[in-house]
Design a protein that fits this description.
The protein is α/β, with parallel strands linked by helices. The chain has one domain: Divalent-metal-dependent TIM barrel enzymes (TIM Barrel), CATH 3.20.20. It has ten helices and ten strands. The strands form two sheets. The chain has an eight-stranded parallel barrel with strand order 1-2-3-4-5-6-7-10. Strands 8-9 form a two-stranded antiparallel sheet. Helix 2 runs parallel beside helix 3, helix 4 packs across helix 5 and helix 9 packs across helix 10. The longest helix has 21 residues. The chain is globular, with a radius of gyration of 18 Å.
Length: 294
């Protein structure tokens, strides 16, 4: 068995339609060893009630599935950097509920986009950090928040490595161990980090500014838009402006061997076929090419 097979944590964002307990089975169907889920409808504020029976069914299904890692992605409506007091309060309440559900299900991490600052970037970072700290104190435990690098559209925070590192630095020292990061290949490329022409330089910069030890999740998505477009438009692996090579390098790079790698690429009509095909493609990328194939 190869080193990659031993350490593999590869999968996709899967639906929880019918309840969170359905997610592990959907992961098995596409051949995943890691999955990402929503614990609620991401574009609605309404919070679901996960019953003890639903939680137990989820945990039982997960244990039987062979899936090594499950992470949560929070609601798209949450904006912890908002200057609007009503939206800020609602976002804090919603994120606390996200942390509570994640803890209840026995999941160890939740991916979250830094918010939109709207008025002033530095004040937005301060608001985001203060809200994150409040939420983490409200839900004690070891669930980590993985701040996702963004494409930099509009007033979105988190498109520069310095900004992500600065946000973590603003978190009180006793909570900082619960803050990690998620890097999305589409977002990095759209934000101006050239994974095609300067792959090693990008990750060296990440390590220098943020630290590779804080990278806890990778979203593997190609981009429908060109380099530095600042637009978040995902494409199938190897079929967008990034092409195959950055993904091949990630899949073979020992620095990323133990990190969960999750696709959020277009699903197609049946929600299964494209994901299976993309995961097979990434596993092929993990195998070194022969001299004849180079």
């Amino acid at each position: 068995m190869s080193r990659f097979q031993v350490e593999e944590q590869l999968g996709a964002h899967v639906s929880t339609q019918g309840g969170v307990q359905s997610a592990p089975g959907r992961g098995v169907t596409i051949g995943a060893t890691a999955v990402q889920i929503f614990t609620k409808t991401p574009n609605q504020w309404r919070d679901p009630v996960i019953t003890p029976e639903g939680r137990d069914a989820f945990r039982t299904g997960w244990a039987a599935s062979g899936i090594r890692t499950i992470v949560v992605h929070d609601s798209y409506l949450i904006n912890l950097a908002s200057p609007d007091s009503a939206l800020s309060c609602r976002s804090v309440e919603s994120f606390i509920a996200e942390l509570e559900r994640t803890t209840y299900l026995g999941i160890s991490a939740i991916v979250s986009h830094p918010g939109n600052y709207i008025d002033d970037r530095e004040r937005g970072l301060d608001r985001n950090a203060a809200a994150l700290a409040h939420c983490l104190r409200s839900v004690p435990g070891e669930v980590k928040v993985l701040l996702e690098a963004t494409a930099g559209t509009g007033t979105a925070l988190g498109s520069r490595f310095e900004e992500l590192a600065g946000l973590r630095d603003r978190i009180p020292a006793d909570l900082r161990h619960r803050i990690g990061f998620c890097a999305d290949t589409c977002h990095l490329y759209a934000a101006g980090y050239d994974l095609v022409g300067g792959f090693d330089a990008v990750w060296e910069e990440w390590d220098r500014v943020i630290g590779l030890e804080h990278l806890a999740c990778l979203h593997l998505n190609d981009s429908k838009t060109p380099f530095a477009s600042r637009r978040d438009r995902h494409e199938l692996i190897g079929e967008g402006s990034l092409g195959a090579e950055p993904f091949r390098r990630i899949m073979q790079d020992p620095r990323f061997a133990g990190i969960p790698k999750l696709i959020e690429t277009p699903k197609g009509d049946d929600l299964v076929t494209n994901d299976r095909r993309m995961l097979r493609r990434l596993r092929r990328y993990a195998r070194p090419r022969t001299a004849a194939a180079r």
